[in-house]
Amino acid sequence: MSLAVAITGASTATGLDGLPAPVRSRAARAERLAQLALAAGAGALAAAGLARFDGPPGPELGVVLGTAFGCFLTNAAYQRRLALTGPAGASPRLFAATVSNAAAGELAIACRLGGPAITLSAGAASGLAAVGEAAELLEAGAARAIVAGGMDAVAEPLEAWVRDGGFDAARPLAEAAAAVVLEPIARAVGRGVPILGAVRGVASGFEPDWEAAAAGAGLAAAVRGALAQAGAGEVALVVLGAPPPLARLEQRVLLAALGRVPRRALAPKDAGGETLGAAGVLGVLAALGALAPRECGLVLDVCSSGHVAACVVERQEIPA
Amino acid sequence: MSLRTSAAVITGCGVVSPFGLGVAALWDALLAGRSAIAPIAGFPADDLVPNAAAEIRGVAADDPDRAGALALLAAHEALAAAGLDPGAVDPTRFGVVLGTTCGGMRIFEAWDAAAAAGTPPPADVARVPYFAPAVRLAGALGLRGPVATTQLACASGTAAVALAAGWVQRGRADVVLAGGTDILSRFLVAGFNCLRATAERARPFDRDRRGLVLGEGAALLVIEAAAHAARRGADVLAAVRGAGAAADAVHMTAPDREGGGAARAIEAALAAAGVIPAAVDFVSAHGTGTSYNDAMEAAALGRVFGAAGPAVHSIKGAVGHTLGAAGALEAVVCVQAIATGLIPPTVGLVTPDPACAALDLVRGEPRRRRVDVALSTSSGFAGANAAIVLGAP
Asked: Which CATH architecture has domain A5-191?
C-alpha cells in the first residue's frame, strides 16, 4: 500500500544566523556535524509549525538522520590530540562527540524531541535512507511527526582521508545539510498546515560491484520497490544520484524499470558536488521544486560504497 | 503460539565474544559466572588508567579490519545455525543491519599516524567508515538487499535488531542479518577513561560499582519473515515482537536520572508487541556498572514494571561493555534464555545498590525460569535509548 506521509516543513542549513536563541546557543558549543543538523532540523520544524524549545520532551516528536561519515572530523581532532599528548591530554569534550548520533541528540535536546531518535549510515545514500525509515516509522505509529534529514561535515581531515584512497566520491565533496518534517497526511490536514509534498514509496538495496555481469540487481530492486509501494503509474521526473562512472548503469536500470527514462531529469550533484548524507534530502527538495501538483518524481541516491536508495515523492501543495 | 506470516522471527545466532568463538562459549561462561576482564594485551596500554578490558584473543588477530572480520565470523555461525545458504535466497531480498560505534578505529589510528608522519596510508584505509563492516558483510555474502549501519552509540546493536525486524515486517526483505560489532582501541579506552567512566571491575547494580569496563565482540542474528522460515522448514528460536526507541533530550553524556527516555523506549516496544508489563519474564538490562546508568535504569524499569518486576540480568560484568555489539549480544542472551529456561547471574553483583534494590536482580547462580517474553534495553551517549521485545515462538 502506498505510503501516506506528508512533508510539512523543509530547510537546508545556511549557517547559524537567524536560528532561535536556544538552538544557536547549543550550536555555538557543538561540533560541526551537530551544527549542521541543528540548523537544518530546527529550520524544518519551524517551517512545519512544530518548533518548541522548552518544556518536557515530547514523545510524539522524533528525529531520524542520515550521515555518511558522521563524526569523522571530531574523531580526527580527538585522535590527533591523543596522539600528541597521550591519554593525559585526551579531551572529554571531544570524546563525548565522537558518536555520529551526537547530532540527533543535540537536536532532540534543543527542540524537545522525546520520540525515536535514530541515526543511520548508508554511505552517500544515508539521507534518503533516513527519509525512508522515518516515513515507515510514522506509518507504524511510532511518532506523530519526525524530522528526517541528512548531513555531512566536510573539512581537511576528511578530504585528506579521501585523497588517501578512503572513499571514491567521483565528484568534489561539498558540505551540506537538509531536513524535512514528515507526518501522516491525515494529521497534517487535521493541523491545517501547508503540505509541500508526500512520500509515497521508499526502498533501498546494495550494489557493490558495478562492473560485474549481474550489476544492477540491487539498484533495480530498490527502484522497483519504491515504485511498487507508491503505486505510481507515471513518473514525471527523476533525480539522478550516481557518481559519473556509474551513470550508464543507472540509466539502464531506469530504462528497464520505467520503460523509458523521463525527459525531465535533474542531477543536483553535477552542480552542487557530492553532498553525501544531505544528497538524498536535497534530491527530494529538488524534485518537489520541479514537479507540478499531483505529479510524482523518483529520487535516487547511489554511492560507490554500494548503498543505493530510491524514493517516490508527489507534489501536493495543499495550502493551509 | 502461531505467528503472523509477516512476523519477524529469529532462526539463527552467531557470536564472537571475549570467551571465544560461538554462542555456546558465551552462554556456558555466563552460566558459570565467569568474567573475561583482564589487563589489556592487544595494544600498548601501560599509560591507560585503568587498563582493564574484556578482549577477544586469538581470533582475527591479523585482520586489520577486525570489526568486519568478527562480524563475518559471527554471521557464518548464525547462518549455519539457521540452516540457511545465502545463495538459496533472492539476494535482493536479503539485507544487513549492523551497529557499531568504533568499528574501523584501529585503521583510523594507523591512518592518522601515517598522515602525521607523511608516510603512505594503511592498505585498508577504505574500511575506516562506520558503514564498512556492514558493506564487508553484504559483499562477502553476495547480498543485494537493504544495507544500513545503525548509529545510536551504545544502543546501536539493539537498534539494528529493531530496524531489521521492521524491514521484514514491512516486506522490504525476507531475511536480514542483524547485530553489532565493535573492537577495542586506544582511542576508545583513553576516551572513556578521560570521562572518568571506567573501573578495573564491572559490577552492574552493585552498591560498590565504580564504572564500566570496555569489551569487544560481535553478534549476528538471522531475522527472517515467519512465512519464509516456514517455507524452508527452519526452526524458529524466537520472535521479535516489538521495538521502541526514544531520546532522553536531557544531556549529551549523562543519562536522564529519572529514566524518562529509557522508559519511553520500553513502553513503545511493549506497545508495539502488544505485551503488558506483567507478561515480561526477563530483562537483559543495559547494566553498565556506572553509578548514573544503573540508577537511571532502575528508575526506568520501576516506572514501567512497578514493584513486582521481572528477573533482571546484565552481561557486562562478564564481557564488559561491548558498545555497538552489546545490544546484539544481549539479544542472543534473550534467545538463549527463551530456549533454555535459564537466566545467567550478573557477574560482579554481590550487594545490590539500594537505588537498584527494587529490581529482581539475578545473582550468584543461574535462575531456572520459563521465559516466554524477554526485554532487552540499551542506552547510549547523546540520550539514545532502544528496546526490543523477544518472545517464544
From this structure: 3-Layer(aba) Sandwich (3.40)
